[in-house]
């Protein structure tokens, strides 16, 4: 509920008088919105002109957070790869990402889907934002959605709507802005970060932490396994399996289980040593 000082982003003359670069402002608006979506996964869901102000340093100040959208890590990764695939004009890759994300039924034709995406992407590639109709683009994408029986996700619909709104605001600020070129560095950095060695190690550490959470009594569990093996060896524990062969199988299972836990534990320690 903080009070902010700024000029409405629709007051172009006032912004110019302050020395604000409208071209840079348009680029920042697009890039900041993409950073919200692919980096943070938590984006402003109503970024029209009435909710955007600019201070005397050219910083964008959004207000009214009554509508917010969320994207989980997988959706952010898929979104970044889809948009970047469009920028690279790699429609086969874009189609593959759609299938990996489960956005398209597996029995659909990947080649036909890639061709449908090409029919949307090629006509707009390299055009400035003033020559791209967000409404028409969205209509084409919805046609593809219907044709291939794609599941509709509310979070992605909200994101698409806001991309069109942001595009319109940027178009009014500086009509020559190329939305694809402006988007490229944000998407490249995001994809580079999530595929970096550090990100891989972080993922491994997070997975290991989940394993540890599921085994809160690790030492006690090990003691129980050893005790069970001793009882079985002494013949004091019956598992309802006749013959020495059955006993040996159960002993091997317990030993393997114990060894797997030990290996996992030391793997976690090694990763921690490498990172810290």
List keywords for this structure.
disordered C terminus, mainly alpha, two-stranded antiparallel ribbon, 11 helices, globular, 5 strands, 2 domains
Describe the 3D structure.
The model is unreliable at 207-212 and 263-276 (pLDDT under 50). This protein has a three-stranded antiparallel sheet with strand order 1-3-4. A two-stranded antiparallel ribbon has the order 2-5. By secondary structure, the chain is mostly helical. The chain is globular and about 90 Å long. It is built from eleven helices and five strands, in the order βααββββααααααααα. Helix 3 packs antiparallel against helix 4, helix 4 packs across helix 5 and helix 9 crosses helix 11. The protein folds into two domains: 1-194, no CATH class; 198-275, no CATH class.
Compact summary:
By secondary structure, this protein is mainly alpha-helical. 65% of the residues lie in helices and 5% in strands. The strands form 2 sheets. The chain has a 3-stranded antiparallel beta sheet. It has a two-stranded antiparallel sheet with strand order 2-5.
């Amino acid at each position: 509920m903080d009070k902010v000082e700024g000029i409405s982003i629709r007051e172009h003359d006032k912004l110019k008088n302050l020395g604000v670069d409208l071209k840079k402002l348009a680029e920042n608006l697009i890039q900041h919105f993409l950073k919200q979506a692919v980096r943070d996964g938590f984006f402003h869901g109503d970024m029209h002109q009435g909710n955007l102000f600019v201070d005397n340093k050219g910083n964008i100040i959004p207000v009214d957070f009554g509508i917010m959208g969320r994207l989980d890590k997988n959706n952010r990764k898929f979104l970044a790869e889809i948009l970047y695939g469009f920028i690279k004009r790699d429609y086969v890759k874009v189609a593959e990402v759609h299938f990996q994300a489960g956005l398209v039924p597996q029995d659909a034709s990947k080649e036909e889907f890639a061709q449908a995406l090409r029919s949307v992407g090629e006509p707009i590639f390299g055009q400035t934002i003033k020559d791209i109709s967000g409404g028409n683009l969205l209509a084409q994408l919805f046609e593809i959605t219907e044709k291939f029986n794609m599941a509709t996700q509310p979070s992605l619909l909200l994101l698409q709507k806001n991309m069109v709104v942001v595009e319109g605001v940027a178009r009014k600020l500086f009509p020559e802005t190329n939305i694809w070129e402006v988007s490229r560095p944000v998407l490249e950095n995001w994809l580079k970060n999530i595929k970096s060695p550090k990100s891989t190690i972080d993922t491994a550490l997070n997975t290991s932490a989940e394993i540890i959470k599921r085994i809160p009594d690790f030492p006690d569990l090990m003691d129980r396994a050893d005790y069970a093996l001793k009882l079985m060896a002494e013949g004091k524990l019956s598992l309802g399996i006749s013959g020495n062969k059955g006993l040996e199988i159960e002993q091997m299972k317990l030993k393997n289980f114990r060894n797997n836990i030990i290996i996992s534990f030391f793997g976690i320690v090694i990763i921690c040593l490498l990172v810290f």
